Amino acid sequence: MKAEALFTVDGLYIRDRFGRVVLPRGCNLGGDSKIPFAPPGNPLDYDVSFVGRPFPEQDAADHFARLAEWGFTFLRFVVTWEAVEHAGPGVYDEEYLSYVRAILKKAEEFGISVFIDPHQDVWSRWTGGDGAPAWTLEAAGFDLSRIAQTGAAFTVQSQGADYRPMSWGMNYLRYANATMWTLFFGGNAFAPGRYIMGVPAQEWLQSHFIDAMNHTARRLKDCAAIVGFGTLNEPHMGYIGLKDLASHQRVTASGGAVPSALDTMASASGFSRNVRRVAMAGALPQKGLETLNPDGVSLFREGFGCPWMEAGVWGIENGEPVAKKNSWFSTAPDGRSYDFAQDFLKPFQLRYMETLSKKHEHYIFFIEGVPMGNRSRWMSGEAVRKDGKPFAMVEAFHWYDGLTLLFKKWRPWLMADGETGKVSVGPRKAVESVMNQIDRMASYPRSEGIPALLGEFGVQFDLDGGKSFKTGDWSAQEEALGVYYDAVDASLLPSTIWNYSASNTNEAGDGWNTEDLSLYSISQGGGRAVKGFCRPYAMAVAGVPAKMRFDRKKREFVFEWDAVPADGEAGITEIYVPKAWYSDGWKSDFKGESAVVEERPEANRLFVTVKNPGRARVVVTPAGKEGRA
């Protein structure tokens, strides 16, 4: 029996099974799914289990009911490669996949749909993030016990109390992450002599990842909640594109040690290297140096060495490491500059989609580029299967308010543009900056005829040293989230906020690298800053959305659309109206040609059926107040 598609892609729009345009809204479930459920404490161990992530099966109904009450009926469901295949190459954790199936079957009962997010950050838990199994690093020749010692990566486990919050992004500059991603995406070009078990490294790594996700799709094939699969969370280029081995200009954290590419390669091979420190996301130099690999040990297991030395990228002269092929990662043999997304990321995405779609033609693929960076560009006719059928794709880009994220302070008068570097000062200009950034990023895929979705954004709940935990005042988080969602509304974007961690506490945060962005916390016994993210929005539209706006001060929601009358469910425009903002009741006013308006406050819903085509407008206001229809 052929599976029915919950959603389909139609030009720039996502449509439901009735043909209505949908603006699905929800969250990432969840941040703690990056780490094992057992044993507790995120140990760097093979013998782990992710059964229980995102939450124990017996707790699923409570969590899904809460999410549905918030209007979050669309989830980006986090699954890591390690969770599926941690025990060894080709050894899948069937107990975990059975558990995930049970959780997704429960989601169906609450009218919640999902797309599976193969999540990673800086490759793996052994390299300061999450995602890939440990055996991928061993296959590349790494001795796992020497990763921290050689400076190839740093972790919370290795640094303990010295670990700096929001510093994990600096691992993108380190050897382990940079090498693994370069091998994964570009091993054929940059390490042609590196084989794993007789297979080129790039082919071996990609095949295992794609096969693991394909097996996951096969095990979940009867889950009606699944809309599709992501291709890969926040893909990274590793060393690809670096023009100078003596520098490294990709700082993605508030500050820390910034080794050059040559420093990372040398330190992995047993050289001690003194590297500079920076602050303000790399903008300012700091005094003092940090020594990588002070003991001068090698990262590699017996019989292995640095693939970049083997490729002649660097060597040793007079006892010192020197660059040999400075442009190896930036310039192709024909003299052109490499384009990471076009040359390496896009071929992977096409291969991934081709494999999964063979048995799942109805899946939508949620594609990503490098956050605030290189993305695949899709021209007409490029995104097609080998049989000529087009892939259904949505670009799920990410956006974060970098200053608030990195420094954990909400300043409503200050905003930096993550792409252009432009700083906006003043409350009005800061809001305009957020609007412009999100709309601009949505415009990239839309200009290519592809729908856009904001797949990650959010705010920390431990702002200002966890002040809100003591005061119970979440107004800063609510204001920040309100500004972000105002931009989401203005751009008429589907969205999934980061994140919902069922295990979150004030003390442990989301359980991963000291982050604390979960909308839910055990310590608060429920949601935090709920009015920041739980707000009215158009869920399904019988026609074409034109304008959506929510005035938080007046509690006034305005939605306009070009109505297309239809029979039955296809003709009903559905709007979510939460009790969080209208505990004293609400009323609606409609302007346009004749319509049937049904208010159902007990279900947090407003239904509008327009009888004639044309521009329609509905305004929701608190009960007893006049709207401006």
TrEMBL record:
UniProtKB keywords: Glycosidase, Hydrolase
PANTHER family in the record: ERGOSTERYL-BETA-GLUCOSIDASE (PTHR31308:SF5), PTHR31308
Example GO biological process: carbohydrate derivative catabolic process
Name under which the protein is recorded: Cellulase family glycosylhydrolase
All copies of domain Glycoside hydrolase family, residue ranges: 57-237
Gene3D superfamilies the UniProt entry points to: Glycosidases (3.20.20.80), Golgi alpha-mannosidase II (2.60.40.1180)
Domain Glycoside hydrolase family 5 C-terminal intervals: 535-620
Family, as annotated: Belongs to the glycosyl hydrolase 5 (cellulase A) family.
A Pfam family assignment: Glyco_hydro_5_C
PROSITE patterns: GLYCOSYL_HYDROL_F5
Any one Gene Ontology molecular-function term assigned to this protein's record: beta-glucosidase activity
